[in-house]
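Moderator note: this is an archived Q&A kept for reference. The question asked for a predicted structure of one protein chain; the sequence and the answer are reproduced below.
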Amino acid sequence: MRCFHFTNGDRRADGEDAVVSRSSASVSWARSLSVASSSIDTTRRSEFDSDCTDFRDSVGFSELLNHRRANDLRVFNFAELKSATKGFNRTLMIGEGGFGCVYRGVIKAAVDDSDAGAGAGAEGGSDTDRHLDVAIKQLDRNGLQGHKEWINEVNFLGVVNHPNLVKLVGYCAEDDERGIQRLLVYELMSNKSLEDHLLGRGNSPLSWMARLRIAEGAAHGLAYLHEEMDFQLIFRDFKTSNILLDEDFTPKLSDFGLARQGPAAGLSHVSTVVVGTVGYAAPEYVQTGRLTSKSEWSFGVVLYELITGRRAVERNLPRNEQKLLEWVKPYISDSKKFHLIIDPRLEGDYSIKSAHKLATLANKCLTKNPKSRPKMSEVVEMLGNIIDDMLPPQQEPKALTETETEAQVVEEAEDDLGQMGSGKEEGCGGNYMRRVFEFKELVSLRNRSCGRLDWRYWTHGSR
């Protein structure tokens, strides 16, 4: 039996699968597991990609959870997470969507969480009293909405490992007389999402270089999913609200609920039910349901969002400006008008040459023919070149002469010995000064006899 799950949307009368629209408050933040709520019109739908029965009662579900235990995910009990959120206190709720709610919580950090804790609000001294700030997503136990996405997140985030992917700390799966309890525990991203900063919810606008770095990091995450694992994973919901930022503004992709395993070797695509967000889904994917790694068309959309500071679709703007790609089209071909689309919050503090290059890359990602779009590893390389062109040229350090080197070494040695002998000079007297003299002579002799072996004087072909 085919199981389809819709989120606040209607199926088309002709029975065809299509992207289904909904509007829900705070859904972007609830899905992105960040630290503030937002309102955004999104279009997405969960789907079961294979024939299935109720996962709650299947042997496969138990096997899945046992397998995740082998991948270093922590298994929490419900009471532990209830305590972490102070009884799922509404004041700690940081998002809400069709699947349930997301809460901020504090858990005891395991020994293996020490690295994550350093960047996610770890507190305390010893391993036994360290604490970790986390985001806890609770599935609505009164319905199955989001259950397949919950399984997807456990399944995929349990095996992926990359600095540009959000870390899943663990999960909770309990069934009792009150119903099912399905929760996910993530590292908390202290700088919210890219969407929040572009839309002015942050304290200050992102600098132009920060935008380039974020684009590069996100591309690294997608390249890992597409090209660097044993199997290919297609994200399918790449957008600014799903790019979270840690305390160093390192971007991390979040929300793997719609992720899908890519085609096996020898196959050109996989056929799936169409899911995604209006303004981000690749046109050919929406039309045919055929999914490939080149279907991450939305990367080009996000690049234009970084350039303009606007959403892909913004209903509050005049009609001719509501769709971002249509609005920028007449400007990108006119170099004299191009600056008019750049985010005014930058206040002119950007490189117009760099912006032109970024728009050119965005256009390559948005090419109509999927086969002509660059691979994400190629996108990473192109973004790296754009960033390198922005950096000031590095000056070669001035080579020191042999005399200068000797003087520098003697001076440093004298300082070191001075520190060693401080407070003892009166007791040591001439004995201490003799040691200093002997050390100077030793250093001088070494430099005279071995100076040519020093790497600073080595040139190619020297013998």
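Archived answer notes: The first helix runs from residue 27 to 32.
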